[in-house]
Amino acid sequence: MELLPAIRKSIITFALLPALLYAGIPPTLQSDASQRMTKDIMDRVYITPKRIVTKYAGCKNNLIKDEHYLLERGNGQSEMNRKKCCIMTSTETEKASLLLDFGSELHGGLKLVMGSSSRREPSLVRIRFGESVGEANSTTSNSEWKVGFSTDDHAKRDIIMEIPRDGMIEIGNTGFRFVRLDLLQNNATISLKEISAILRYRDIPYLGSFECNDQRLNKIWITGAYTVHLNMQEFLWDGIKRDRVVWLGDMHPELMTISRVFGYNEVIPNSLDLACKQFPLPNWMNGMSAYSLWYLINQYEWYHQTGDIDFLKKHSDYISGLIHLINEKVDDAGNETLAPARFLDWPSSGNKAGVEAGYRALIVWAMQDAHQLSLKLGNTSDAQLCLDIINRMKKKILPHNNLKQAASLMAIAGLMDPQQACDEVVSVGGGKGFSTFYGYYMLEALAKAGEYEKAIDIINTFWGAMLDLGATTFWEDFNLDWIPNAAPIDEPVPAGKKDIHGDFGAYCYPGFRHSLCHGWSSGPTTWLSDHVLGVKIVDVERKQISIEPHLGKLEWAKGTYPTPWGVIEVSHEKKADGKIATKVKLPKGVKQI
């Protein structure tokens, strides 16, 4: 299927790199060195600090001068006149330090433009990156993960380094919003002309959009989109500070968001290709059977949104092999032995019975999608095998054990009536018991039950609370029980208050190890586009879409939705009689059914 030309034009695929790589390369490098080059597909921009959060200028307040110059936009060039510089000084007993806020979560590093120092030798400094003020001030503990400490085992965030007297130096590659700089030597003075964050990102258009009369929902939608955008590196990561690899389960909410915001992007097929190379059958994706199930769900959703049959055919053998592997591990009575370890998401880990029920529902969902994939590939025997597995699994349906994750998956897979799932557990307590990853599937269960107003209220309460606490991207995990007496991430924690970042977290994310930019948390972005705007691709092959808005208490909503044939524009307005007036602009050849 031919993709929208404007989308294709904005993409540099790996397949095009050989032709583009050497354009403009100096002739002296084009013969030998060019054969060892890899083009950086990411873009870079430099960002000036938005504010100075704190400074330590000594007991006499004279160790730092003219720090306001660091808030002015620079040109990246060191100058001999040494004017308009921030001066930082240390003595025998006191060391100057600055804590800077760049305004929003970023992925990249730091650029220092120097304006001389009192030493002819390089000066020693400590640079700490933080997703929160608390993390930028924290101590690192890599040998033991614990509350109150940070780690840099995935991306170095606590760095002691020498900086030059003049010129420029760049350092760091991590996720951060805040940077703290400390002088470490006695009796030293440095002049800083500029400190800039280096944002490393994909320069791609936001083709999808969402706007309504609730500004909080608008901010939630764009925050989810930005969270995933930062994780769209060479491959699709789940977090820019930690776990910077392709995780197939974490990838599903990100794939959903990417297709609603950016449309087609090669980061998805490239990541699926990489996963198959890294985990050839009979290995499980990421060493986890659940994530091989998510691989099948990802493949179905990507085809459903793009119609890329060539990519699907490329994975035909892997899909078929995985179906047969799963079939071997499900007996006639519905007992399955895929793997001894079960995983849905971290917050559900303590409810073993609920996880077991949810895991079985995930198998059924994956086999339903694999059935459709097999039909698209013309593999009728595999399609029938998927139905056989589903029928066997349905012989043994386990109770959800009051686990919202499990009940949601059971509703999605058709193993439980959605209204019953919501009444018994998903809706109970509102956002209590929601999680950032599986929260999306809880919202989907609410939609299946027709509980759109409740879902919108929970989006506002749960994801909105992170915004209230200073978030500019959504987090790896969040719990409404953390909120009482907690300070936000963008200020030093007052005495007697809890640090929302450093004092909470569990499992693999205690304390500051907790990622504050995790793509799996972007579910509301997809949900608002799918259910409030109401746009859905029904049949990608026939260019059929449906539009069924659910405004709840909203007065109006409008936005755009990318498809393989162009961008759909839609607006909805609630009239006095409660009916919704809709205006739609469709790309040529697209049919609304």
TrEMBL record:
SUPFAM superfamilies: Six-hairpin glycosidases. It comes from Phocaeicola sartorii. PANTHER family: ALPHA-L-RHAMNOSIDASE SIX-HAIRPIN GLYCOSIDASE DOMAIN-CONTAINING PROTEIN, C, PUTATIVE (AFU_ORTHOLOGUE AFUA_3G02880)-RELATED. GO terms for biological process: carbohydrate metabolic process. It holds the Pfam family Bac_rhamnosid_C. Residues 543-591 form the Alpha-L-rhamnosidase C-terminal domain. This is Alpha-L-rhamnosidase. The lineage of its organism: Bacteria, Pseudomonadati, Bacteroidota, Bacteroidia, Bacteroidales. Residues 207-397 form the Alpha-L-rhamnosidase six-hairpin glycosidase domain. Coiled coil: none annotated.
